[in-house]
Design brief:
The protein is of the alpha/beta class. It has one domain: Alpha-Beta Barrel (TIM Barrel). Helices cover 44% and strands 13% of the residues. The protein is built from eleven helices and eight strands. The longest helix has 18 residues, at 228-245. It is globular and about 55 Å long. The N and C termini lie far apart (38 Å).
Length: 294
């Protein structure tokens, strides 16, 4: 079972956005490892995964494994916009002995429950014994996984070991009845971290943890120790940063935040864009106001 903090690693791009800037992957990994994170989640939403080709996802995994070199566990989100790309990425991840695979719901086209079941089943069959974690993000994908679909999947595929729920407030609760020694519920919504941990959650996948891993590690430790006061204080700090950066240009804000802290996370891939000077100044002032910058 996964335990601890898995920041959803950013993907650094070259200034024109056409290629992954592989030279910047190692500093991003080292920044997280220096704080003691237990693992990394790559090619997800914060990693601009929907904009990555299957080839790029595989290259990102190769470089991350090379940088981490066994010092932390790696979860890879393998979903692509096409099924052949998804299956090819999943097969490559298995061959490279990734610790776990995550699968984002299909996106753009609306898929009914049967279509979603068949899609996930194809991937579950492909990855064999490698742990598979479903990834529900209905506000972005337009497709919401239903409990009845999960029940069907769990009866057939014992390698489905959990779900990362990144939906709106309350979405996490519907998966709690399925928690067991073989299936875990992982919080992917940063404003719901304290609820997840106080309900017995053991792992977190977070986009804003790219910038403030210490706060997430502290909230995990506090929850384990039963220190609810510290848990709530940390959640307040998490929420302050979420309020500052979570809007239409979230990933650009995260990359800019790291740049202000001295870490170059590369550029955005169009059609997303980097922050302009005024936005960068406002972000800097906001980070100072919540004590993320001196």
């Amino acid at each position: 079972m996964l335990r601890g903090l898995f920041p959803a690693l950013l993907t650094p791009f070259t200034p024109d956005g056409l290629k992954i800037d592989m030279a910047k992957v190692r500093p991003l990994c080292e920044w997280q490892l220096s704080h003691g994170v237990q693992g990394l989640f790559i090619c997800g939403t914060t990693g601009e995964g929907p904009y990555l080709t299957a080839h790029e996802k595989i290259a990102m995994l190769e470089e991350t494994l090379r940088c981490v070199h066994g010092r932390a566990r790696i979860i890879m989100q393998v979903g692509c916009s096409d099924l052949p790309g998804t299956l090819a990425t999943a097969k490559a991840a298995v061959q490279m002995n990734v610790d776990a695979i995550s699968l984002l719901q299909p996106w753009f086209y609306r898929c009914d429950d049967e279509a979603q079941f068949n899609y996930i089943a194809r991937v579950a069959e492909t990855v064999g014994d490698t742990p598979l974690y479903l990834y529900n993000l209905p506000q972005n994908t337009g497709n919401d996984l239903k409990p009845v679909t999960l029940e069907r999947l769990l009866k057939r595929f014992p390698n489905i070991r959990g779900i990362k729920e990144s939906g709106e407030e309350g979405a996490l609760q519907r998966w709690l009845p399925y928690k067991s020694d073989q299936f875990q519920v992982i919080c992917g919504n940063d404003t719901q971290v304290s609820r997840s941990l106080l309900a017995g959650g053991k792992a977190l996948v977070s986009g804003t943890a790219n910038v403030q891993p210490k706060v997430f590690l502290t909230i995990l430790e506090a929850a384990q120790a039963g220190d609810q006061e510290t848990v709530l204080q940390c959640q307040q700090q998490i929420n302050r940063y979420v309020d500052l950066v979570v809007h239409s240009n979230l990933n650009a804000n995260l990359k800019a935040s790291l740049w202000l802290m001295g870490i170059d996370a590369g550029s955005m891939r169009p059609p997303n864009r980097n922050l302009d000077d005024d936005e960068m100044k406002a972000l800097q002032e906001g980070m100072k106001a919540i004590n993320l910058l001196p």
